[in-house]
Amino acid sequence: MGSAKPVTDKERERVRQLHAEGKGRNEIAKILGRGGRTVSDIAQGLGLSFGRAAEVRQATEVRQADLADRRAALAQRLQDVAERELEKVNKPHLYFEWGGKDHTYAQKLADEPHPSDKRALMGVVATAIDRSLKLAPAEQDTEGLAAVDAWLKGMMGGS
Fold this sequence. Notes:
This protein has helices at 9-20, 25-32, 36-45, 53-87, 115-135, 142-158; strands at residues 93-99, 104-110. By secondary structure, it is mostly helical. It folds into two domains: 9-51; 65-158, no CATH class. The protein has a two-stranded antiparallel ribbon. It starts with 8 loop residues before the first helix and ends with a helix.
């Protein structure tokens, strides 16, 4: 094997420049026509590093925080759905139909939804709350959650 070609100041400056542009060790080595180890040695001599673990960790933390915020927002929307549907359970309910050969429209306002419709509304409420809690678990006592769960199950079975 022959001796290695000495590293020039021009190459050192080029490594500094390419590193600043975000190029990786192997890419710089290819551009300079040098081995990866030589580029690593040059970079080390310049106080540069190709280690990206900290950057990757930071980007991962940012992404996880963003996803947590999105889950919390979605959980809030599901909670809103649950509250809106729960309000309908004991309120007047409009029933309508299209019928006959002329497709006539008829409607009737009931004092409250029929039991089967109440069950359906409570199913939506229970599902929305369940999914909301899975996305953003409550930070309160489990006895309170158990009471809400028992109440919802009672409403579902009692209607």
